[in-house]
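Q: For a teaching handout, I want to show students what a protein-ligand complex looks like in token form. Below are the inputs, and the small molecule is zinc ion. Please produce the holo structure.
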Amino acid sequence: MSLAGWLGTGPLLAAAFEASWLPTGSAVPVAGILTGLTVGLDPGHGGFDPGVLVGKGTPGQIRECDINLAISLRLRVLLERAGARVVMSRTGDVDLAQKGEGSVEDLTRRAELVTDAGADLFLSIHCNSFPQAVWRGSQTFYTADGPPGSDLLAWLVQEELARVTRETDRSPDGRQELFILKKITVPAVIIEVGFLSNPRDRALLQNPDYQQLLCLAILFGICRFVHHAPVGPA
Ligand SMILES: [Zn+2]
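A: Here is the structure, written as tokens, with zinc ion included.
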């Protein structure tokens, strides 16, 4: 089904907005709102590539790949509850590279996997990191000259992240050339759900309730996107 086929279900969308204010764990009254949509969902890193490591080599080591996967698996449940079909690039601690290959092949296969599965849009979940610990907050990235609609998807997801989590004041960023997004032809974003280099973000990102809140925000951003809701405060 094309994205245009999603127009015209205002009351359901209103229900989704209301749901954003429910306590974490509440049943989300959005059953069927995404029926017919296929979402490509990529938990960043995995396998040979753990992504950002905090406390490397210590018993309390935190690996970005694990947090990306935990959040993605939660998001899959919500998306499926809303009626979407979800195609994941990985569901375990694996990469898609073959022997002797590296990140280029891994990322290329992830893009091919969701493209071949007929994804209508693509999300890649990552955690950010920066040398200075002060920086924090979730941020959505897109490629400005990438697939049409990516900027709108990024803005709507970012608005919902700000509104639902109240833990970010960042704006979407379309300045960067992002390899995997260049391989995708449908609206595509990378969601950096927070900074593992910041103590508050790091604690939040390991908290199941906060992970669920992030997923609700992303779900509502997608709902608004597929229903062509206008950008701006609801
Ligand atoms: Zn990453």
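A: Two things your students might notice: The pocket of zinc ion is lined by residues 44-45, 51, 64, 126 (CB under 6 Å). The helical segments are 10-19, 64-81, 103-116, 150-165, 179-182, 199-205, 208-226.
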